[in-house]
Amino acid sequence: MDAVLVLEDGRVFAGRSFGAAGERIGEVVFNTGMTGYQEILTDPSYCGQLVTMTAPHIGNTGVNEFDPESFRPQVAGFIVRSYSEEYSSWRSRGSLAQLLRDYQIVAISDVDTRALTRHIRTAGAMRGIISTTGESVESLIEKARSAPPMEGQDLTRVVSCTTPYEWDENSLPFSPPYSYGIARSTQFHVVAYDFGLKRTILRRLVDHGCRVTVVPGSTSAEEVLALKPDGVFYSNGPGDPAATVYAFENLRGLLGKTVVFGICLGHQLMGLALGGQTFKLPFGHHGVNHPVRHIPTGRVEITSQNHGFAVDPESLPPEVEITHINLNDQTVEGLRHVGMGCFSVQYHPEAGPGPHDASYLFHEFTQMMAARRS
Predict the structure, then answer these.
(1) Is residue 348 among the annotated active site residues?
(2) Within a 13 Å sphere around the CA of 146, how many CA atoms are in the beta-carbon half?
(3) pTM of the model as a whole
(4) Which of 264, 267, 301, 337 is labelled catalytic?
(5) 3-state DSSP call for residue 39?
(6) Mean pLDDT across the stretch 360-364?
């Protein structure tokens, strides 16, 4: 059926529906990854967003049971240039379109995603609506404009787990049998806050010898410390970090008492807990090809990123060290406070999807936990 994407500034993109019927409102962003659409769709950090893929051909490898980063697609809507009805992969178990329909995700194809991406880069990320209802453009514009902006939204409560649970599954091997295994031995106990946690992150922690207890994002510092962890992991997640007040206040109660490693939203919460401030980026960083320089070594990493906010470097106290910098726009990509035993990065070191340049950070985390024990 016919579908339309309407932006709050009145820009209209016509296309064809290949997901569920209806309409969905969200912040329109673009992802520059060439592969990994199933991981992107199921990343809870995309809650409340209409995700545009800049790669033109989407759906050609179908979907499978190995790649989801959460139990369902999390995006508000999906926008592509060319959807492939036919799919081919030895791992595929069904079509992308059927997955979207099963979970009531509205999706639109045949969109000039190059023009849309250029528009967002110029005008900034904005609210939009995908509709298959045939409603007038004027009415859809008003709906988009009446939607709440991303600033001020705490979306972590939408995607976080509601009860604690244990995780012991490790990463998928590169040779047969192609199935996730169970950790045989662990050296460290890590409590992982779920603000929109991805499964690949948990598997990477298990790969590095961690027994992982996942807790809801609202769990107090006292409750976490009562679990006697060797370290605490602050996860990725959606929304405005400044609106997630309970999360960075709880982090303040953990700093100096245990080792803390944060990524993405967890990095922004780290900056807030250490006395800094955050701000909204014009169109965010979403993709698997973002260059980041590790300042202590000068090494450049190609990283996987998905965030719309950043830490203001001018707001950080002098004892906080900036360890990584984004080479595209010079925003802060990493922090460390030696005295507090904490560090964080803005990107996704678990590489789900993306390059493995940053996997060393999990080793640094375990080294810090081992050093604290001795």
Answers:
(1) yes
(2) 7
(3) 0.95
(4) 264
(5) helix
(6) 95
